[in-house]
Amino acid sequence: MSAESxxxxxxxxxxxxxxxxxxxxxxxxxxxxQAVLEAPREKRLExxxxxxxxxxxxxxxxxxxxxxxxxxxxxxxxxxxxGLLPPRLxxxxxxxxxxxxxxxxxxxxxxxxxxxxPLHVATAWLPDGxxxxxxxxxxxxxxxxxxxxxxxxxxxxxxxxxxxxGSLDDSDDSYVAPEAQKEAEEVVDEDAAVVRFVTDVIxxxxxxxxxxxxxxxxxxxxxxxxxxxxxxxxxxxxxxxLRFQDAIISRLxxxxxxxxxxxxxxxxxRINFKAGGVVLDIRVSTVxxxxxxxxxxxxxxxxxxxxxxxxxxxxxxxxxxxxxxLDYPHGIVLVTGPTGSGKSTSLNAFLRKINSTDxxxxxxxxxxxxxxxxxxxxxxxxxxxxTFADALRHVLRQDPDVIMVGEIRDKDTAEIAIRASLTxxxxxxxxxxxxxxxxxxxxxDMGIEPFLVASAIELVIAQRLVRRLCTECARxxxxxxxxxxxxxxxxxxxxxxxxxxxxxxAPVGCDRCRGTGYRGRIGIFEIFRLNEExxxxxxxxxxxxxxxxxxxxxxxxxxxxxxxxxxxxxYTTFDEVLRVITVTEK
Length: 586
Known about the structure:
alpha/beta; seven-stranded mixed beta sheet; 23 helices; globular
């Protein structure tokens, strides 16, 4: 059956705007069918795949075959057709006009006359009669439908129309989204559009798994950027966004309960954001700039899935080293690294590893990033005098077995934590240092006596996060011996490890990873444990370099070497490892 005839049959049968081929519907129970049809269009394929217990690519092929449509891959937007459809319709139905040549296996016939030139439309879910009616409203051209990967369709919509363009669209008032038809008689004012736009921006950030959103007023534009997988990514925005700049900034400040009339001083606030079952605690910060206030949002998902040690990217050997120390009744375990390197995530994984009914675990955090069942979690509030040090003093009177301190920022906190570890408590915390041995000298520099540091510290873990190669599209690529040896030399690895390696996995880019070649992140780790020789070096106040050299002699694997292991096993690339590691002279 051709795509055209399949679509016609399907559209003719659709009466309520929701379609599911009988062959697939028969495999679902009533509850599953309802869940699929009630999901947003961009989430229906994922919901159907979960219900069927099959991979998404396979379900996409089955769905297309059942509807008589083809699957479009390597999508490219048709620039000539971009202006035919209003952004609100494109966003609502998750459709995008595509180039005819972007459909796999297609060969263009003799060009038809312009009036009969078909409009090829990629959609994230099966088209229905309502969609076809709306398209006929805006273009007389015959429409040919193609199913495509929902993530890629959504990405192309964002790239071509901008985040939230459906909310700020004022180009054509003739289109009213189905759920808004009952409100069509009401006048949709600018305030409502801005409210929807801000919600769209935050929702898209959640979809992209961003950790931060930055609204940055520039000359002649309001720039919006997400931090995704540790990198700042510019967000395509609607062309008319600048007109709404002041209203958007005011909306964010109102949501964060800030003083909207105060534009000269920095302010801090919080937003509790709920959307689609996701609960976010958003930390908001504003600073005045020469054009307007710049606003940064830190997104903290209170219900996000916690990571196990294995999922963090730790090898079996690394897990064994750490687990051995987690069974100790007392001592300090430190995790070090720059902001955004996953320190809190690792500490949470350790807590979950040891969490049991016979241990009293108390955490002191700023902010609380993960909820751990059975653990007593405490939020510091410096504005009312509840600092890490003050909270730790009180926690010690609570009969804890294990204490997690979000960060050791000063001598006071460090001294109390060390005293707690020496009096029979297991203490977890973080520090900001470049490598694991640096944590020792950092504590000494804070004013802690070396003999206390040497006695209390059981383990220091330095870590970084590198982007993980997309499992769908990563492919082995040849690498010359010269280039391999050069990279190994930069990482301080043994040149002998280049033997027999002629290929390493490289990023390619596909619809699943949005063309980047990477999807998600994985950790690289440096695990430092003091022995008798290093204990003496600490007492002598030796430098970080001396401690690191001694640790390497005793088998410590550095961050660079851990990164090479991840490259060798096809998890990431040399470029990623070099990007996140500050390579020091060995």
